[in-house]
C-alpha cells in the first residue's frame, strides 16, 4: 500500500485537532477564583467568582467573555442586577433544549450534523438496491460519494462541537472515501490497465 493515504490521514487528523484548539475559547483562571458557566439571554458566559476583598462574607464576580459588560470585578448586587436585566424570562424553547444549543443560529449546525447520518443511511440504501439488482453484493460508485458527503457533514459538526471522539471517528474515514473514488476514476481512465490481482470496481 502506498504511504500517501496514511500521510493524508495523519495530516487531516492534525489539522482537525488544530482547528479544535484554535477555536476553543481559552480563558485563564484567576488564582483563588472559581469559574462557572451561565446561560443568560442565549449567551453562554464564563464567570469568575471569589470572596469579596472588602466583605469576606460576600462574593464578587466578573465576566470573562462578555466585553459589553466589562471585565472588572463587580459586587454580587451589581452582578445580580445585570443578570436580571439581561435574562430572557421566556427561557430556551424546547427545540433549543433538545438540540442542546443556546441560539437559533446554532440550529443550522445541528441540521448539518443531522444531515450526516441521513446521507450515511442513503448510501446503505443505494448499496442494497444495487446488490439486489445484480443479485450479488456490490458497492456502487455512488456509495463512496455519499460516504464522503456524510463524512464531511459530520466532521464539520463535530469540529464545531469540539467533540474529539466524533472527529476521530469521521475525519479518518474521509481519506478512505477519497481514495476509493480516486481508484475508480483511475480505473475508468483510457489506457489505464488494472493490476492483475485488482478487483474491478462495480458500478
Strand order of the largest sheet: 1-2-3-4
Q: Low-confidence parts, pLDDT < 50 over ≥5 residues? A: 194-203
Query: Which structural class should the secondary elements be placed in?
Result: alpha+beta
Task: Output the radius of gyration.
Answer: 25 Å
Describe the largest sheet: 4 strands, antiparallel
Tally of individual domains: 2
Coarse morphology:
elongated
Query: Percent helix among the residues?
Result: 40-55%
Q: What is the N-to-C succession of helices and strands?
A: HEEEEHHHHH
Alpha plus pi helix count: 6
> How many β strands by DSSP?
4
Roughly what fraction of the amino acids lie in strands? 5-15%
Features:
203 residues, four-stranded antiparallel β-sheet, alpha+beta, disordered C terminus
Structure description:
It is a single chain. By secondary structure, this protein is α+β, with helices and mostly antiparallel strands. The protein has 2 domains: 4-23 and 95-188, no CATH class; 34-86, no CATH class. It has 6 helices and 4 strands. It has helices spanning 4-23, 76-86, 94-99, 107-134, 141-161, 164-188, and strands at 34-40, 43-51, 59-63, 74-75. It has a 4-stranded antiparallel beta sheet, covered by helices on one side. It is elongated. It starts with a helix and ends in a 15-residue tail after the last helix.
Amino acid at each position: 500500500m502506498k504511504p500517501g493515504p496514511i500521510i493524508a490521514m495523519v495530516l487531516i487528523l492534525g489539522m482537525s485537532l488544530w482547528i479544535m484548539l484554535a477555536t476553543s475559547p481559552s480563558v485563564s483562571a484567576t488564582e483563588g477564583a472559581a469559574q462557572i458557566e451561565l446561560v443568560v439571554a442565549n449567551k453562554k458566559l464564563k464567570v469568575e467568582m471569589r470572596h469579596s476583598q472588602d466583605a469576606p462574607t460576600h462574593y464578587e464576580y466578573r465576566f470573562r467573555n462578555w466585553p459589553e459588560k466589562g471585565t472588572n470585578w463587580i459586587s454580587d448586587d451589581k452582578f445580580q442586577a445585570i443578570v436580571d436585566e439581561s435574562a430572557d424570562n421566556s427561557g430556551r424553547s424546547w427545540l433549543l433544549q433538545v438540540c442542546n444549543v443556546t441560539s437559533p443560529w446554532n440550529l443550522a449546525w445541528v441540521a448539518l450534523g443531522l444531515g450526516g447520518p441521513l446521507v450515511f443511511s442513503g448510501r446503505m440504501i443505494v448499496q442494497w438496491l444495487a446488490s439486489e439488482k445484480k443479485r450479488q453484493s456490490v458497492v456502487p460508485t455512488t456509495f463512496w460519494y455519499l460516504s464522503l458527503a456524510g463524512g464531511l457533514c459530520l466532521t464539520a459538526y463535530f469540529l464545531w462541537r469540539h467533540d474529539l471522539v466524533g472527529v476521530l471517528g469521521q475525519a479518518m474515514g474521509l481519506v478512505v472515501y477519497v481514495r476509493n473514488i480516486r481508484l475508480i476514476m483511475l480505473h475508468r481512465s483510457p489506457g489505464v490497465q488494472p493490476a492483475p490481482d485488482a478487483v474491478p470496481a462495480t458500478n
